[in-house]
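note to self — DONT lose this again. spent like an hour looking for the file last time. sequence + predicted structure for the chain T wanted, 151 res
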Amino acid sequence: MAFHIFEHMKQSFVLLLLLLFASIAFPQNSIVGKWKTVDDNSGEVKSIIEIYEKEGLTYGEIISIFPKAGEDQDPVCLECDEDDDRHKKKIIGMEIIRRLKKSNNEWNSGEILDPENGNIYKCKIWLEEKKLKVRGYLGPFYRTQTWLPVR
């Protein structure tokens, strides 16, 4: 009887080791989840974006914002182009990342909206040291932000 218990414990230990090695060998390579956007100048958290997949593409939605005292606590996108379906819509709940396709270890070929100025940029996203790198392109020019995982 004791031999069977020992054998079962040994098998469980081996299985645990295999799972551990598999997680190291095949690291998580998904951007799906919640991410904090951080102001480039102040370092303050500006918003929480939830990234999700829909019909094989990747999207991102603002789920909360952190306006300063005196700022509109529930703003709308007045700067969005009048032809954009997000024009005059609430920022909270707004889809700002649209139609990204996964290609190797990055997501691209979609777009990102900056609701502060209404500009829409081509977008590329990738993971780097458990942080999300988000790059918006306007012609040959680009800007890259680092978003942090929400824990």
